[in-house]
Write a structure and sequence with these properties.
Oligomer: single chain
Order of helices and strands: HHHHHHHHHHHH
Number of strands: 0
Strand content: under 5%
Amino acid sequence: MMDTPAIGELWVYLASAPLFWLTLTLTVYQALDWLFRRSGRFPLLNPVPWSMLLLGGLLVATGTSYESYFAGAQFIHFLLGPATVALAVPLYRQFGAVRRSFAALGVSLVVGCVVAAAAAVAIAGLLGAETSTLVSLSPKSVTTPIAMGVSEKLGGVPSLTAIFVVLTGTIGAVLAAFVYRVFGIRDQRAMGFALGLAAHGLGTARAFQFGETAGAFAGMAIGLNGLATAVLLPLLLPVLLRFFG
C-alpha cells in the first residue's frame, strides 16, 4: 500500500499533466451519463450539474486552481463553439415550422425575456437581497457567456450570475416534463421554445429528449433570448431596481 507522501507526490504529478483533467472530466461525465440513461433519463440525475459538483468539489478538496484545471480541460471548452453551431442543423430541418410560428415566437420571446428578469428581481428584492445580487440574478435565463457579460456590464457579479444560470437550467430541465403534463402542453414547438427561453443549454438538452422539433425550437430560443436580454435588460433593470432594489 502506498504511504501518504507517495500518494501526495503522485497527485502533484497527475494534477500538473494537462491530459489528466481532460480524461477525468470525460470519465466523470460518461459515468454519470450512464447512470442517467440507466435511470430512464430521470431529470434529477442529469449528468451536467452532477459533473460540475463532483469536479468542483475535487478541485476544492485538493486545492487545485481553476486555471490548472482549465489548462487541461480547455479542449472541451473549445468544442462548445461547434456544438452551438450544430444546433442550426435541426433548426434548418424545422425552418418551415419556424416560419409559420414567427408571430407567436416573437411575442413569446419578448414576454418570456421580461418575465424571467422581472420575476427573479421582484422575488429576490422582496426577500431582502442586495442590489448587486439582484443585478447578478436578472440575466439568469440566458446562456452563461452572455449572462456573465451582461451582468458585468450592469454592475453585477459574473461568478454569482454563473451559479444562478446553472441552477436555473437544472431546475428547468427537472421540472419541464411535470409542468407540461400538468398543463397538458404537447406541442413540441411550444415545449422546446419555452425550455430554451427559460433554461438555456440544459433546457435545450432536455428538449431534444422530447423530440427533434422541440430541440430545434429550444436551440433557436437560446440565441434569440440572449440577444433580447442584452438589448432589453439595460432598459428594464433600472425600473425594477427602483421598486425592488
